[in-house]
Amino acid sequence: YKNSKFYKKNTVMKISILVLLLLFTSIVAQKLQGQLPTQWSHFYNNIEINDQIEFNNQICIATDIGLFQIDKSTEIITFLNKDNSDLPDNHIQTLSKDQAGNLWIGTYNIAMVMVPLNGGNWTIINYPSLANPITVYNSDIAPNGDLWLACNQGVLQHDGQTWTQHMISCAASGPPEVWDVKVNSTGKVFAGSFNL
Fold first, then answer.
1. Cβ(93)–Cβ(107) under 8 Å?
2. Which pLDDT score, from 0 to 100, does residue 195 have?
3. Who contacts 85 (Cβ-Cβ below 8 Å, separation ≥6)?
4. Where are the extended beta strands (E) located within 2-146?
5. Could you read off the pLDDT of 56-115 as tens digits, one per residue?
6. Could you count the other beta carbons within 10 Å of the beta carbon of residue 108?
7. For residue 10, what is the enclosing H or E element?
8. C-beta of residue 134 within 8 angstroms of C-beta of residue 151
9. How far, in whole angstroms, is CA 33 from its chain's centroid?
10. Which has more pLDDT, 112 or 3?
11. Residue 137: how many CB atoms within 10 A of its CB?
């Protein structure tokens, strides 16, 4: 049986397949060499992305654990939270830019933070004290520099000195829960809510 032509052909075929398989594996390994990352990035599990904006050659991503900044040129990721920056809270809900290009970072319920385009000192503007705690959902900056917030207490405006709560008439009793606010180039303010 071992001397039969069938046995010899079968053995040669098995060896040929093994050699081809080893050759294929070697070629694939060579192709992949250098293409695999030398350093793996860690991505967090179970975080919520709330907003994103481009600022100063970076993509800024607001999450409930802090702010991620991705440099568009180098692809280096920087993570900021209240432990390693001037952020007053880790839950970042909203991001906006003003006419000068400064970045405004809004926490969920503590303050807005202005980060100057030139990299100077950060300015923290605490949210006003109202009858109920404030929960901020979105923000925008008017052409005149006024800060507008959409929140669970309606719409809030900060003129650089004081906060004003704008009561919007709606079907529900009490201030409406406003989810979005936008200011156009002429300064007209638009607000969006389920109750409006």
1. yes
2. 63
3. 67, 122
4. 49-55, 58-63, 66-71, 77-80, 92-97, 103-107, 111-115, 123-126, 136-141
5. 889 999 999 999 999 999 989 999 999 999 999 999 999 999 999 999 999 999 999 999
6. 19
7. helix 5-32
8. yes
9. 32
10. 112
11. 21
